[in-house]
Amino acid sequence: MAKLAHAQWSSRMGFVLAAAGSAVGLGNIWRFSYMVGDSGGAAFVLVYLACVALVGLPILVAEWMIGRRGQKNPINTMADLAADHGKSKAWALVGVSGVLAAFLILSFYSVIGGWSLNYTLGSVIGTFNGQDADAISGLFGGMLASPVTLLLWHTAFMVLVIGIVARGVTKGLESAARLLMPALVVLMLILVGYGVASGYFGEALAFMFRPDWSALNGGVVLAAMGQAFFTLSLGMGIMMAYGSYLGEDVNLISTARTVIILDTVIALLAGLAIFPIVFANGLSAGEGPGLIFVTLPLAFGNMAGGTILGLMFFLLLTFAALTSAISLLEPTVEMLEERTPMSRVTATLASGIGVWLLGVAALLSFNVWSEVLFFGLNIFDLLDTFTSKILLPLTGLGAIVFVAWCLKRDSVEAELGLSSTGVSVWNVIARFVAPAGVIVVFVTGLL
């Protein structure tokens, strides 16, 4: 199939960093580590890795393959590939679903990214110093209750995202990933080093890695499967868009392994950075989102060197939010750039303003629109629920089914570069295991 001229990553490493940056987000900094500690430690990690291998990796490879073959935005790519293989035009809906999911997710993700920016500034000016638990909780509650404060930081975060994405694939997405990902890892390692010196590193290791096989049950396995799917930015059109900038010389499976290893290692390092601080200050590790914006600020405000540690931590959180956010904006930008006369900059501005406007509605759901409910959910929670429980699994399912059942098997096998045994394993996993896993996550999420 003749391919249009299309932007390309400058190197495999640039692509790996960008893809890993997309996968490493706010959830990696607290959610994964907490799930490990609360769901069986090393036992959960093993289940998670199995789910990644059987569900996450094949869908990641499928989305990259679709993007690389189409060399266009997810919607056009799905439409073209379906036509080339004599399949229904309805397959384009997989691309539509992915682009829509990324757009909707960024609208509320940017609000949380704004919280991180706000707390970064708070660390610099000593907002948390000497505060007790009630005062720290009051700061967080006061931020949520103030539409002006939320609007200011949501806007600041989106300006950063738009500024990066407008610069293009190599100068924007790739350059940001090359800067932010190493900085993120360095900050993480410094915080882990502090955790080692705190005297509570052993407790953190035990919390996260002591195997507790009795904790494993159906719910934990489902949680591991869901985390394996969502942590890799699957079902959002992101990996299709990133794949469209990928050269033919990149081995998809080995690259997917590298991205998954980076994503998992960074998530585990986050736990080893956070939990020694939590345990050293006698705080609860089971606070969920409150761990980031209530529990840790309390610790930072009442410990030696807490100002510097707090600044590093919230910078880390902001970097993680940014690397994911720029990837979430890309599918919509690529679509507008290719389907309209818009330039890259104009498409980015249009997409970013649309996301910003929807984000305003999301942030108002914490205050002046708190009583505006749809299906019993405020706007923020509705966006979260609709994307995570419906759009993402359906898009991921569509991608793996399309690659496994619609693309010509010989060309797929040639692109994977596997041995005959490897091809057989791939066919079983891609055709049956991975789709079944996504269907299970989808159905249980709706129950």
From TrEMBL:
PROSITE patterns named in the record: NA_NEUROTRAN_SYMP_3 (PS50267)
Per UniProt, what is the membrane topology? Multi-pass membrane protein
- Gene Ontology cellular component terms for the protein in this record: membrane
Extract the Pfam families matched here. Answer: SNF (PF00209)
State its location(s).
Membrane
Q: Which residues form a coiled coil?
A: none
What does the UniProt keyword field contain? Answer: Membrane, Transmembrane, Transmembrane helix, Transport
Looking up InterPro entries in the UniProt record yields: Na/ntran_symport, SNS_sf, YocR/YhdH-like
| Keyword Membrane in annotation | yes
Transmembrane stretches in the record are 12-30, 42-62, 90-112, 150-167, 179-201, 221-247, 259-283, 303-329, 349-370, 390-407, 428-446
Q: Among its keywords, does the record have Glycosyltransferase?
A: no
Tell me which PANTHER family the record gives: TRANSPORTER
What is the recorded name of this protein? Sodium-dependent transporter
Q: Which organism is it from?
A: Halomonas qinghailakensis
